[in-house]
DNA sequence: ATGGAAGGCGCG
DNA sequence: AAAGCGCGCCTTCCAT
C-alpha cells in the first residue's frame, strides 16, 4: 500500500491519496490543511502502514517530526531519481531520457539558517516565499506519474532486486537523517565552554582573538622577528618563515614539524587552537547548539559515491578535541558502534576473494582483525604495513611506502586487486562503473572526451593525468560506494529493529517516541545510539544483528562477516 | 563589492 | 610517514 503526499496546484494545502501496489486508487483524494496534516498522516499510518511517497522527505518529514509523527517507510522520489538517472542497471530503459526533474529544495530552507526563531523544521513548503517557489512543487498527478516511471525503470532494469534494495535503503536513510537532525546529539554547553576557556581564555569580544591565541601570535612574531605578521595569512607566514631561515615549501603542519626552530612550536600550537576557535568555538556553540542538543543536517546521497554529507556545524567532522562535550542524558548512555575495516571487507566481498576473506577469520571461523590477518599472511605480522598496503590499493597509491607495498598485496590477493584495477582501467577509458547495488558514476563531460583527443605534448600530459585521476576515482568509487550501501542497509535494519522494541507499536514508534533509544549520529561506518541504560543489552544485540542482516541483504550467504565494535560510554570522547 | 579558488585541517 | 579516495568549514587572496 502506498500513500501519496503532494501539494494542491495552488500549493496552499496538501493532498493525500492511498494507492494499491498496482497504482490504482485505494481511497479518494483528500485535501488537508497544513495544520491538520500531521493528524491525518498519523491516522493513515496507524490504519494502513503505507509506504509514503513524496517528492522529497526534506519537504515533509521535518514538520511531521515536529508534531511527533514518525513513519515506518517512504519512497523518496528525488533520491531515487538521482540514482536511477545514472544507474548502469537501468541504462537501457526509457527512464533516463524521459524523467522529469524533481523540484529542487527550497533555498530558504537550506544552509545559513542557523537554529533560531525560524528553524527549518518550522518552515515548510507551505509558506515558502514566491521567489523560492519558481520551480513548482509537485502535485498528486506528478507524484503518481514519477512513482510509476521509477517502478517501471526498476522492473525493466538488469538487476531489479538490487535496485529495489538500494532505493529502499536510500529512502529509509532519508527518514533516519531527518530524525537525527530533529533529535540532535546531546551536547553539554557548559563542558564545551569550560574547554574553550581552558585552552583559549575567556570568550573574546566580537572580531577579537582570544587572549591565549593572541599571546601565541605575539610570541610567533617575536621568534620570527615579524612584528606585523598575521599568522592566518599563508603568504605572509611563508615569507616570514623563509626570512627566518626555515626553508619550507608550504606551511602545512606536518611539513613544519620537520624543522628545528623556536618559532615552530608556537606556530603549531597556534594552528591547532585557531582551528578550535574558528570552527568549533563560541560561534559554533551559539549557532548549532540549542537546549543541550547539537542539531546538524545530514544530506543523504550528498556524495557521488552515495555516502552522506552534512550541512551546518560539520556533524561528520566533529574533532576528537571537543567530543568530551557530547555526554549522554541522565539515565541514558551512548552506544557507539563502528564496522571494523568496512572498506577492505567490502572489497573482499565484491571481488569474492576467498583468500582475503579467510584473512578476516580465525581457525574457528570467527571474525578477527582483517589487517592483522593480512599482516600474518604476508607482511611479517606488521599490521600497520598491511593497512597501508590495503588502503593504497583501494585509493590507487603509486608512490611512497603505500605504493611500494601494493605489489606484495597483489601477489597475495590477485582477485581483489584485479577488481579495483579493472575499475581504474574502465575509468581511465571514460567508462562508467557501478557499486554492487547499482549506483553508477556520473557520466564524464563532453569536454573530458575532447581533452583525451588532444594532440600537443603538454595537452596530452594533462589528458593522461586527468585519465589517471579519474581512474583513481572510479577505483575508489566501487569500494566506497558499496561500503556506503552496506552502511545504509545497516542503518535501515537498525532503525526498523529499534522501532519494534516493546512496549509500543510500530505505528506510534513505540519507544522511539517516548524516550526510547534514538539514533543521534552517523559517520560513514559508525553510528551513535542514545540509549536508556536498561536497554543497553538489547540495543547492543540489535547493532550486531543488523550488521548480519545488512550483509545478507547485500551479498547473500558469503564466508565473510562484517563485525561491529560496540562501546558503551557516557561520553563520546571515551568511545573505542 | 562579491563570488570563487586556494590553502589548510577536521572527519571517515 | 606524510603519497593515494571522499567530504565540510574557515580564512585569505584574486578575479570579475
Automatic annotation (TrEMBL):
UniProt biased composition (Polar residues): 110-123, 437-453
Keyword line: DNA replication, Exonuclease, Hydrolase, Nuclease
Chain positions covered by the region annotation Disordered: 102-123, 425-468
Pfam families: DNA_pol_A
GO biological process assignments: DNA-templated DNA replication; double-strand break repair
Major enzyme class: transferase
GO terms of molecular function: DNA binding; DNA-directed DNA polymerase activity; exonuclease activity
EC nos: 2.7.7.7
Limits of the DNA-directed DNA polymerase family A palm domain: 321-535
Catalytic function, reaction form: DNA(n) + a 2'-deoxyribonucleoside 5'-triphosphate = DNA(n+1) + diphosphate
Official protein name in the record: DNA-directed DNA polymerase
UniProt source species: Arthrobacter psychrochitiniphilus
Amino acid at each position: 500500500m502506498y500513500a501519496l503526499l503532494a501539494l494542491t496546484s495552488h500549493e496552499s494545502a496538501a493532498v493525500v491519496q492511498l494507492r494499491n501496489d498496482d497504482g490504482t486508487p485505494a481511497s479518494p483524494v483528500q485535501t488537508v490543511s497544513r495544520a491538520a496534516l500531521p493528524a491525518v498522516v498519523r491516522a493513515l499510518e496507524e490504519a494502513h502502514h503505507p509506504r509514503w511517497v513524496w517528492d522529497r522527505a526534506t519537504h515533509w518529514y521535518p514538520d511531521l517530526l515536529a508534531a511527533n509523527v514518525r513513519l515506518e517507510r517512504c519512497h523518496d522520489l528525488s533520491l531515487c531519481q538521482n540514482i536511477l538517472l545514472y544507474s548502469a542497471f537501468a541504462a537501457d530503459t526509457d527512464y533516463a531520457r524521459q524523467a522529469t526533474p524533481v523540484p529542487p529544495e527550497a533555498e530558504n530552507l537550506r544552509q545559513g539558517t542557523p537554529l533560531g526563531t525560524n528553524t527549518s523544521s518550522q518552515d515548510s513548503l507551505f509558506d515558502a516565499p514566491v521567489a523560492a517557489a519558481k520551480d513548482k512543487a509537485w502535485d498528486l498527478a506528478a507524484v503518481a506519474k514519477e512513482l510509476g516511471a521509477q517502478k517501471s525503470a526498476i522492473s525493466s532494469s538488469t538487476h531489479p532486486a538490487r535496485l529495489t534494495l538500494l532505493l529502499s535503503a536510500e529512502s529509509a536513510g532519508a527518514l533516519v537523517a531527518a530524525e537525527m537532525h530533529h533529535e540532535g546529539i546531546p551536547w553539554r554547553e557548559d563542558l564545551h565552554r569550560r574547554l574553550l576557556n581552558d585552552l583559549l581564555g575567556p570568550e573574546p569580544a566580537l572580531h577579537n582573538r582570544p587572549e591565549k591565541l593572541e599571546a601565541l601570535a605575539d610570541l610567533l612574531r617575536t621568534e620570527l622577528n615579524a612584528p606585523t605578521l598575521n599568522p592566518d595569512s599563508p603568504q605572509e607566514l611563508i615569507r616570514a618563515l623563509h626570512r627566518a631561515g626555515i626553508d619550507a615549501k608550504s606551511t602545512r603542519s606536518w611539513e613544519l614539524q620537520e624543522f628545528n626552530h623556536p618559532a615552530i612550536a608556537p606556530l603549531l600550537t597556534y594552528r591547532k587552537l585557531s582551528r578550535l576557535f574558528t570552527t568549533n568555538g563560541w560561534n559554533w556553540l551559539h549557532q548549532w547548539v540549542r537546549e543541550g542538543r547539537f542539531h546538524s543536517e545530514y544530506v543523504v546521497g550528498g556524495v557521488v559515491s552515495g555516502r552522506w554529507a552534512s550541512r551546518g556545524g560539520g556533524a561528520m567532522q566533529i574533532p576528537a578535541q571537543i567530543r568530551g562535550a557530547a555526554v549522554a542524558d541522565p539515565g541514558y548512555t551512548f552506544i557507539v558502534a563502528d564496522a571494523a575495516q568496512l572498506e577492505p571487507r567490502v572489497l573482499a566481498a565484491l571481488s569474492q576473494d576467498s583468500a582475503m576473506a579467510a584473512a578476516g577469520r580465525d581457525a574457528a571461523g570467527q571474525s578477527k582483525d582483517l589487517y592483522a590477518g593480512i599482516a600474518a599472511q604476508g607482511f611479517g605480522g606488521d599490521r600497520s604495513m598491511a593497512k597501508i598496503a590495503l588502503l593504497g590499493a583501494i585509493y590507487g597509491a603509486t608512490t611512497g611506502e603505500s605504493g611500494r607495498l601494493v605489489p606484495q598485496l597483489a601477489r597475495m590477493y590477485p582477485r581483489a586487486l584485479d577488481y579495483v584495477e579493472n575499475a581504474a582501467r574502465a575509468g581511465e577509458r571514460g567508462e562508467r562503473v557501478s557499486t554492487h547495488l547499482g549506483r553508477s558514476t556520473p557520466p564524464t563531460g563532453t569536454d573530458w572526451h575532447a581533452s583525451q583527443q588532444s594532440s600537443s605534448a603538454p595537452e596530452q600530459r594533462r589528458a593522461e593525468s586527468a585519465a589517471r585521476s579519474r581512474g583513481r576515482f572510479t577505483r575508489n568509487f566501487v569500494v566506497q560506494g558499496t561500503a556506503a550501501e552496506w552502511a545504509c542497509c545497516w542503518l535501515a535494519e537498525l532503525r526498523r529493529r529499534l522501532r519494534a522494541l516493546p512496549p509500543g507499536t510500530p505505528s506510534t514508534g513505540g519507544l522511539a517516541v517516548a524516550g526510547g533509544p534514538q539514533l543521534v549520529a552517523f559517520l560513514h561506518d559508525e553510528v551513535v545510539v542514545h540509549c536508556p541504560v536498561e536497554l543497553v543489552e538489547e540495543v547492543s544485540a540489535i547493532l550486531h544483528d543488523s550488521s548480519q542482516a545488512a550483509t545478507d541483504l547485500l551479498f547473500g550467504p558469503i564466508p565473510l562477516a562484517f563485525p561491529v565494535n560496540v562501546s558503551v560510554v557516557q561520553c563520546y570522547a571515551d568511545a573505542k
